[in-house]
Amino acid sequence: MARTDVARVVALESTLPREPDIPAWAPLLYQLELLDFREKLEPLSLPIPDRIRIGNQKRERGNFYFQREEYGMAAQAYCMALDMLTTHTNDSQRCASEEEDEEVNDYRVKCLNNLAAAQLKLGQVDEALHTSRDVLFLDPQNVKALFRKGKLLSDKGEYEEAMETLKKALKLEPSTKAIHAELSKLVKRQAGENETQNWQAKPAQVFGENIAPFLTRPPEKKLFGISWKFLLGALVVALGSLVTSVVLSARN
Length: 252
Known about the structure:
With 252 residues, the chain is mostly helical. Helix content is 66%, strand content 0%.
């Protein structure tokens, strides 16, 4: 057999269906061997640059889970990043320079904002509101946290604080449409609540003795506003005209 023929046979056999070496859904047994392990890192024992590096890695890991809509894993990763991003030592003393402290705070703000977003996806409204307040403690002019806090307060019915918070966000970013929309929604909610409160009392308590006109059935209007005397007179005139026309026709 020529070499080209052998190649054709091999190619043909590779395309033919055959039974797999392992049947589908066959149980598999794995044997693992632990070669090494690492103890959990203690953030307070690490230098600040290492804390920033590891904390940022965990934050990016949280972003990865968030994009995959695995919000529980994302929230866990953000919390681990926050545990790592600290500038304190074992004796609660700061050990970072001013630049390092600012960098750590920037990463903490990012982690907290992302954590609040993940908490909202998980339906943890109170936790998200608390996290947003933590952001504003570090960065009082963080528009994202102001907007999220104002929206959550509005949803909880705390309209006064929500209005104040959203106005701060609008002052910082006047062109953001989402803030305008949320403020408009908040104004409508306030107006609806005030209207509901005004009409919660019974009608008798609102009108007092003047309620009688509202309970009396209004008189029914007549179907025709013309009196019967006028109709009778018009009928007589019409009959007279008809008789006169007949008489004149007979004479002619």
